[in-house]
Amino acid sequence: VRDIRLEIEKETLVQNATLPFRIQKLTFRDASFTDQYMSRILVLLKDITSLVELEAIDCVLDGKGEWDIKEIARSGKSFVETVSLKNIVIQNFHLFFDLEGMESQINQLKRLTVASSRVFMVACKLAKHFSSLLYLDFSDNLLVNNRLKETICEGAWPSLQTLNLSENSLKSLKNTANSVTRLPKLINLDISQNNFGEMPDVCEWPENLKYLNLSSTQISEVTACIPPTLEVLDVSANNLRGFELQLPFLKELYLTKNQLKTLPGAISIPNLVVMSVRGNKLNGLSKEEFVSFKKMELLDASDNSFICSCEFLSFIHHQAEIAQVLVGWPDEYICDSPLAVRGAQVGAVHLSLMECHRSLVVSLICAVVFLVILVLVAVGYKYHAVWYLRMTWAWLQAKRKPKRAPP
Question: What are the TM regions of this chain, as residue ranges (predicted)?
């Protein structure tokens, strides 16, 4: 449904003789609603018993949430399981009501997205009635830590497994972690693109948390605040210069666009399967680093300033499985130095023997020259070469003496 202004009074969907409809998803795009029309729409949509997903994108709500709660409740329960609201404009969003009385209409919801819609809180009383909700996306809104405590109060969102709070105005990682500890079933948490800045030494997290996204949060180091239960951790696009954490269950680690000069130590993350260090400051990879990750299946080390040294190239050319492990190989692995091979693909560069073993080659040349001289001296001594040289020199001197003029 596109580009409309809904004005519904007494219409009903029962007039259609083909009920029940087999519509499963309904999308409103660029539509405009009022409080009165919203109440009527919510009642009418219940006639479509097959409807399980409702979506509204780039719509305008001209109202404050003063819906006819009694009429909506009398019309029975909703069959919708997924609601997605993206870029909803509410002119007076700060005056929007808390939707008290809608509790009976939301307890069947399993997935809820309210993104880019200036959400700054959800009333605790309402949040407690999302009893079946598994997935909640509040990305790109106006949530702050003080309001988050109200939104995630004790007993709210009791079944929630996935929570997306990215692109909000959260400032304290410690307080954010404390808030989500009230979600006992939480597994997946995205708090990326918030300005945390610093990471405390210790934090409390939900016991079952396995996936954590902390990318683009302005952190400069990682501490024991990171929960040891994690299987997937994303700390991309920060200012990290190192990564030294004991994460025994970690399987995927994303460190893209940081300041790392070496790979993290494998001992502290022994079960790692996937790692990305793309866009860091790595100068190369060594055989010792590579083989220390026993379970590594995918490594993205592209877009780094590789110094194509003899040692690095030797490892690359003699490690047979490198092509299967490195993501983007060979196109995205480019030499930055030495100057003679800058811009060339790492896998295509072969340095000469002189470039790789200069000191050895010079030593060999000196040794050969010395041996030649030694052989010449020995041969000369054996065959009296010195006497012959002296006689030859005397003869030459005699030949050069000028003849005396006759008297």
Answer: 360-381
Measured distance CA(119)–CA(113) in Å, rounded = 11
Homologous superfamily (CATH) of 240-376 is Ribonuclease Inhibitor (3.80.10.10)
Q: CA 317 to CA 253: how far, in whole Å?
A: 26
Angle, helix 358-382 to helix 385-400, in steps of 10 degrees: 80
- Cα gap 271→94, rounded to integer Å: 48
Q: How many CB atoms lie within 10 A of CB 107?
A: 14
CB-based contact 275:297 (threshold 8 Å): no
Contact 119, 94 (CB under 8 A): no
Task: Please give the Cα distance from 36 to 65 (Å, whole number).
Answer: 9
Beta bridge partners of 298: 274
**In this structure, are residues 194 and 177 in contact, taking their beta carbons and an 8 Å threshold?**
no
What is the C-alpha separation between 162 and 167, in angstroms, rounded? 16
Q: Which 3 state secondary structure label does DSSP give 68?
A: coil
- Please give the model's pTM, rounded to 2 decimal places: 0.84
Query: For strand 298-300 and strand 274-276, is the pairing parallel, antiparallel, or unpaired?
Result: parallel
Residue 399, SS3 per DSSP: helix
Contact by Cβ (8 Å): 196, 215: no
**Burial class of 151 by CB neighbour count within 10 A (0 to 12, 13 to 18, 19+):** buried
Quick check: bond before 330 cis, omega within 30? yes
- Residue 94 to residues 38, 90, 153, 387: CA-CA distances in angstroms? 19, 9, 20, 113
Confidence of residue 11 (pLDDT cuts 50, 70, 90): very low
Triad 286, 287, 290: Cα angle to 5°: 90
- Written as six digits, the tokens of 82 are 């997924």
The domain locations on the chain are 1-109, 240-376
CA-based nearest residue to 39, from 56, 21, 63: 63
Q: pLDDT tens digit string along 146-186?
A: 999 999 999 999 999 999 999 999 999 999 999 999 999 99
Confidence class for position 7, pLDDT limits 50, 70, 90: low
Unique residue bearing structure tokens 């299967």? 324
DSSP H/E element including 330: none
